[in-house]
Amino acid sequence: MKEKHTDNERLSFILSAYEQCFNSKHHYDSLSWVIGGILLVFVGVLFAYLPQVKGDVYLLVVIKRIVIAIFSWIFLYLWFRIYERNRFWVEVANEKIREFERQFLVEGIGIKFMKANKDGFVILKNKNEKDQKVDDERKIPLIQNAMHRIIPWFLVAIGVAILIACFIP
User: Fold this and answer.
1) Which pLDDT band holds residue 145 (cuts at 50, 70, 90)?
2) For 31-36, which contacts have Cβ atoms below 8 Å and span 24 or more sequence positions?
């Protein structure tokens, strides 16, 4: 037999779920950058080690360096996949936040963020705690999805630099 829940219990559950969405967003974003930082430091160490690989036969030196470079590329790719997976979970949490806000007819941070991203700017209304205007409204432009667009190019640049370092005598 189904248990009947009161409106207060349902509202409490929804508010808890809404809060959990923000916690999840923060968790996956932080996790992505912590893992990325660790892997990028490791790739940096391998990159710094490449010139130290020396030998009498240039071809053998290049082969050893390419093996090291392959490990670096694997770590770069691994971080990119982790970043994309975590970005997906952040977007799921964002959509659920907007769903809660639409359900309760509230223009909260989820809907505000979506509108600012779509419009390409955020409007600062410059009001004090008494809702009185203290300055003119200003539009602050946003760089839309800049991080998501830059990261692949950043990783490709690092990968190319590693490849070039393999052939420097």
Assistant:
1) low
2) 31/86, 32/82, 32/83, 32/86, 32/87, 35/79, 35/82, 36/79, 36/82, 36/83
